[in-house]
Amino acid sequence: MNRPPPIRVLTVNTHKGFTALNRRFVLDELRDAVRDVDADLVFLQEVHGTHCRQSDHVARWPQAPHYEFIADALWPQFAYGRNAVYPHGDHGNALLSKYPIVAHANHDVSVDGHEARGLLHCTLHRPADGMRVHAVCVHLGLAEAHRRRQLEQLCELVRREVPDDAPLVVAGDFNDWRDRAHPVLERGLGLSEVFVQAHGRSARTFPARWPLLRLDRIYVRNTRGHRPLPLPRRPWAHLSDHAPLAAEIAL
């Protein structure tokens, strides 16, 4: 029996469509770079839903929410989890998918009085074989104590809502510069990180121009195989403060 091809996954913190230090609005360039990867699933963090003040003053600000602008015609399915809400707009996590999204829910894991954070859980249907694939787009806090709590909430979410034998991809910005998430997610959920499995260490992704810190991750469970995909330094180094990660995952 012929198996469907591996799924291609991309994760990137969009920095709300601006370059590092908010010097230039580059959402159209970011969209082109995302399209060039041709991923089946795109995990986005810090992506705008709305911002009425910026839309009036920033050139080339799209009328559609940023995740819809990036999805365009290439990803017919998308889900958005609004994490941060302020007087002029909102931002959060989004998943763009070439597969039908049959269910999605955003889980607030914010710590009171600190930055808004969320876990966007989507259930996907792969038409080629009818398989249900679960995807969780992650953006964790800057403080280690907050991340510990949020990792516990991620484990609780997966145990509660994801069948033990279902393929699972968990990707996004973990802000985990001390690599504390690996043992928690390996012991608690049986997750493997794609770059750790391939290279022995997670990938350096921040700051994008001269990556030093290992903040972003792609974790998997119940897969037949996986491999990191190399991405060119340009144009990505100029499109956000985080470098993206990509992988092929055989289910």
From TrEMBL:
Keywords: Endonuclease, Hydrolase, Nuclease. The keyword Membrane does not apply. Residues 11-242 form the Endonuclease/exonuclease/phosphatase domain. One of its GO terms (molecular function) is endonuclease activity. Gene3D superfamilies: Endonuclease/exonuclease/phosphatase. It holds the Pfam family Exo_endo_phos. SUPFAM superfamilies: DNase I-like (SSF56219). The keyword Nuclease applies. PANTHER family: CALCOFLUOR WHITE HYPERSENSITIVE PROTEIN PRECURSOR (PTHR14859), PGAP2-INTERACTING PROTEIN (PTHR14859:SF1). This is Endonuclease/exonuclease/phosphatase family protein. It comes from Rubrivivax benzoatilyticus. The lineage of its organism: Bacteria, Pseudomonadati, Pseudomonadota, Betaproteobacteria, Burkholderiales.
